[in-house]
Design goal:
The chain has about 100 residues and is an alpha+beta fold. The chain is built from 5 helices and 3 strands; from the N terminus they run ααβααββα. The chain has helices at about 5-10, 15-25, 40-45, 45-60, 75-90; strands spanning about 35-40, 60-65, 70-75.
Length: about 100
């Protein structure tokens, strides 16, 4: 995770912003997007950011994979559809 991504999370993010952060981050060989967050960073996140991440997990916008000292958050098809719908609604997406 880049310092810019860390600072975004530490500053607080909305559901749309969290999904955008994942979409613009790393992709695996099949093209699926994910972001890796260390446990130490998770512990530092403000309450609203943790609630946003929990909301995304609960509503299946992201899938979380716990790996040792970090968590990978993978965007799901449902999460990508939500992101694109919100982006189109606000004119932030042209895909």
């Amino acid at each position: 995770m880049s310092l810019n991504q860390e600072s975004q999370l530490l500053g607080g993010v909305t559901v749309f912003q969290f999904l955008k952060l994942i979409i613009s981050a790393s992709k695996d060989l099949t093209g699926w997007s994910y972001v890796m967050v260390t446990r130490s960073l998770l512990a530092q996140l403000p309450k609203d950011t943790r609630e946003t991440i929990d909301y995304c997990v609960q509503h299946e916008f992201v899938e979380v994979k716990k790996l040792g000292q970090s968590h990978e958050y993978w965007i799901t098809r449902k999460g990508r559809e939500f992101y694109e719908m919100e982006a189109k609604k606000d004119g932030r997406y042209s895909g």
